[in-house]
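ok, trying the design again with the full structure, not the truncated one.
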């Protein structure tokens, strides 16, 4: 398996969303399809049509970073999309494919779980590029209780945001803006697929979701990319009602090629949402010194 089809489809969809007017090129009434033609992108990027056509067919491994940046500028790619294009080029190199055979995804280190457990007023968790929750603090488990209790969670107690979103109908009650969250979930998986196109477990997850969910397949076909994970999340929690939180994520170094993300969900100080989060935190707190925190992973 290689990533040429993903490269082709990504570039074609980015090209299709632009018009000549948007990029300062003359228009023609004889245009039969929307978007830019390949030769127009080539002109904007300063390369030959033959060369760009070859690139759009997935031959990207030997392309320089400077030329990729020129193509990204021609297609008006945002920062995440530009990173994705470079990631796909890096993943297409033979050395990357050989190294991937040795790759193993990791659970969180004990020290990371200790850090999570020390956080008391934010819901905190670590996820990998597959969107598995590898570790969480007590408040994180309480906040995402419907996902942890979902049939989509593994027997080992590891939830997966993508499976919960698309394979459990109750997620549409839990996530107030379900469609926005679903689109972001798929875009995060797209970004991971760009980094690791030869990851068998990831491809199996994507295949499972594409087969079981028409909604997932539709979002996947859009080729949208998301790398940064931050914003506002509104949840309809069965215990405390509708709650609005801000969330921020940072990349967590693992010493491997596995991609781990540390996320915090926090309420605005002094707000009713903070009171709801405090109530969840009081329920999630250990009953006493003999109660040991639960580790997920």
């Amino acid at each position: 398996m290689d990533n040429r089809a993903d490269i082709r489809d990504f570039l074609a969809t980015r090209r299709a969303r632009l018009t000549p007017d948007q990029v300062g090129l003359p228009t023609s009434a004889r245009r039969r399809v929307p978007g830019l033609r390949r030769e127009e992108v080539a002109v904007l990027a300063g390369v030959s049509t033959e060369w760009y056509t070859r690139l759009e067919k997935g031959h990207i491994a030997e392309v320089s970073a400077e030329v990729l940046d020129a193509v990204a500028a021609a297609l008006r790619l945002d920062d995440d999309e530009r990173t994705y294009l470079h990631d796909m080029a890096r993943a297409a190199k033979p050395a990357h494919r050989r190294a991937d055979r040795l790759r193993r995804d990791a659970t969180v280190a004990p020290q990371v779980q200790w850090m999570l457990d020390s956080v008391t007023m934010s819901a905190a968790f670590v996820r990998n590029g597959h969107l598995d929750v590898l570790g969480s603090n007590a408040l994180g488990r309480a906040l995402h209780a419907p996902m942890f209790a979902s049939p989509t969670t593994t027997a080992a107690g590891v939830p997966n945001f993508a499976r919960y979103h698309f394979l459990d109908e109750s997620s549409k009650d839990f996530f107030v803006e379900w469609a926005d969250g679903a689109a972001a979930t798929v875009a995060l998986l797209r970004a991971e697929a760009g980094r690791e196109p030869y990851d068998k477990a990831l491809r199996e997850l994507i295949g499972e979701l594409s087969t079981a969910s028409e909604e997932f397949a539709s979002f996947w076909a859009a080729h949208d990319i998301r790398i940064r994970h931050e914003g506002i999340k509104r949840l309809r929690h069965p215990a405390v009602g509708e709650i609005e939180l801000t969330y921020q994520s940072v990349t967590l170094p693992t010493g491997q090629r596995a991609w781990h993300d540390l996320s915090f969900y926090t309420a605005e100080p002094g707000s009713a949402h903070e009171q709801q989060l405090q109530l969840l935190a009081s329920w999630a707190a250990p009953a006493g010194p003999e109660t040991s925190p639960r580790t997920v992973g």
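Keeping the full-length input from now on. The longest strand covers residues 241-252.
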